[in-house]
Write a structure and sequence with these properties.
The chain has about 450 residues and is an alpha+beta fold. It has 13 helices and 21 strands. It folds into two domains: about 110 residues, Uridine Diphospho-n-acetylenolpyruvylglucosamine Reductase, domain 3 (2-Layer Sandwich), CATH 3.30.465; about 220 residues, Alpha-Beta Plaits (2-Layer Sandwich). Strands 16-12-14-13-19-20-18-21 form an eight-stranded antiparallel beta sheet. Strands 5-6-10-8-9 form a five-stranded antiparallel beta sheet. The longest helix is centred in the last third of the chain and has 18 residues. The structure holds flavin-adenine dinucleotide. Flavin-adenine dinucleotide (FAD) binds next to strand 3, helix 3 and strand 10.
Length: about 450
């Protein structure tokens, strides 16, 4: 039976046969019933990456931990395991995952398939850097072990490969020691783009760095932002009450019960929110202790926050620009966004480090992510922003995308041919998504 599904942005929305196998053994028979399919983790990619209108294979039940070695900090698990569930186990035992995205509600397979970056990418690279081995079910019906030594081309193309090399069954990766459940956060208010870029570049030694940026600020305050640096706090440096390790790290979730009317988010309401948020940020203590959830996963406390954008959903535009062209490119993107009046409350700036695999999104430079309600006007704006990205030799993040063109992606990812060669070699043409069809990657 067909069911409606969408990515986190609720745009686009399609009907599909959604299969939820309980055991890996069921996959062979399942895949033989369809000519095309795509794997889906927890559906936290924003656009159409985890959607196939014929068969979408949800991995949520394939979530077993197969081996956990806490002497050496290594885990082997099924790909559907939720990061939040894994952290429930690790945090009280003093361990953590070395790269986490901005939400804990993602599957480990989804993290590998998009090679997620965290706030520490400038220092530590992406999640893929900590993956030592994967088992992947490819289109030839075989399960292949892959690693840097074993089937290395399949390994490289699968990390960040958006599910197009097959279904990741298991992931083995390294863990990191967690000194305490607290992050020592430093907040710095920047008045404009030059100040915030200086802030990032003078703090490259800081473990975690990220900034909220006011993308509607006018010319004189363009790039006005709040920088949040973070370091794991050592337990000995903490006041007594903070030293407890077994308290629940997860935030209490408050629901957004209904879709908000889309007219609530307009130039005036967003502009006012942004000014107030920056004003409040300037008054925060420069240094404070913040818990793991509010520092790494601030939006997880609001369940279904995607409903705030209304029934029509929203699209996130996330690009990265090379360091050399970042200042010019960011200026152009922010100028165009502010003049359109369509800027978002959730605009995030980060400094990324070097690229890893051929399809990994990060490159050394700045990444800017902004949310826009799905509408004709914002789609037109996004096409203009894509052109600016292209002119500055940048690229779009496929895990957020819902509207880029095949040409944009070809230019942004010059090593795409390596993915296509692996798809041929492992007979993966049947693994396709709405995203891969739109971008001529199928
Ligand atoms: C609030 C929020 C904050 C975010 N912050 C960040 C961030 O800081 N950094 C970042 O990099 N990303 C970020 N993301 C994006 C998110 O981390 C990625 O989209 C991640 O892939 C989502 O995991 P998922 O399990 O929900 O995957 P899905 O959305 O279900 O799938 C994503 C892609 O992975 C593929 N896939 C999933 N499971 C498998 C599998 N077992 N085998 C093969 N392919 C598979 C799918 O086919 C699809 O192409 C954020 C998303 C949200 C909602």
């Amino acid at each position: 039976m067909k069911a409606p599904i969408a990515g986190w942005g609720n745009h686009p929305r399609i009907e599909t046969s959604l299969a939820s196998p309980r055991y890996v053994d069921e996959l062979g028979e399942l895949l033989s019933r369809a000519t095309s399919c795509i794997a889906r983790g927890n559906g936290r990619s924003y656009g159409d990456a985890s959607l196939n209108s014929q068969l979408t294979v949800a991995t949520g039940h394939l979530d077993r931990i197969l081996d956990l070695d806490l002497d050496n900090g290594q885990i082997r698990c099924e790909a559907g395991l939720l990061l939040a569930d894994l952290l429930d186990l690790l945090i009280p035992r003093g361990w953590f995952v070395p790269v986490v995205p901005g939400t804990s509600l993602v599957s480990i397979g989804g993290m590998a398939a998009t090679d997620v970056h965290g706030k520490n990418h400038h220092k530590d690279g992406g999640f893929g850097r900590f993956v030592t081995d994967m088992e992947v079910l490819t289109g030839d019906g075989q399960v292949h072990h892959c690693s840097a030594e074993n089937n290395p081309e399949l390994f490289a193309a699968t990390l960040g490969g958006m599910g197009l090399t097959g279904i990741i069954l298991t992931v083995t990766f390294r863990l990191m020691r967690l000194p305490s459940r607290w992050i020592r956060q430093t907040t710095v208010a920047a008045r404009d783009l030059a100040e915030i870029m200086d802030c990032f570049e003078s703090r490259v030694a800081t473990s975690y760095t990220v900034a909220w940026i006011d993308c509607l600020a006018g010319a004189r305050a363009r790039g006005r932002s709040l920088f949040f640096g973070g370091e794991h706090a050592e337990v000995e440096s903490l006041p007594g009450a903070y030293q407890q390790t077994n308290a629940n790290w997860r935030p209490r979730q408050r629901p957004v019960p209904i879709h908000a009317p889309s007219m609530l988010l307009n130039r005036w309401s967003v502009g006012l929110f942004n000014r107030l948020y920056h004003w409040r940020g300037r008054r925060r203590p420069q240094s404070e202790l913040v818990g793991i959830a509010p520092y790494f996963f601030p939006l997880d406390s609001l369940a279904n926050w995607n409903r705030l954008y209304g029934r029509r959903g929203f699209i996130q535009h996330q690009c990265v620009l090379p360091l050399e062209s970042s200042a010019r490119g960011l200026e152009a993107i922010l100028k165009r966004t502010a003049s359109s009046g369509q800027g978002s409350m959730l605009a995030v700036l980060k400094l990324l480090g070097d690229q890893a695999g051929p399809l990994s999104f990060p490159m050394r430079g700045y990444t800017l992510a902004m949310d826009f309600p799905a509408s004709k006007a914002s789609l037109a704006l996004l096409r203009e922003l894509d052109a600016i990205v292209r002119d500055h030799q940048g690229r779009i993040y496929l895990a957020k995308d819902a509207c880029a063109s095949a040409d944009d992606i070809r230019q942004g990812y010059p090593a795409l041919d390596q993915l296509m060669a692996v798809r041929e070699q492992y007979q993966c043409r049947g693994f396709r998504s709405l995203l891969s069809d739109r971008l001529a990657l199928s």
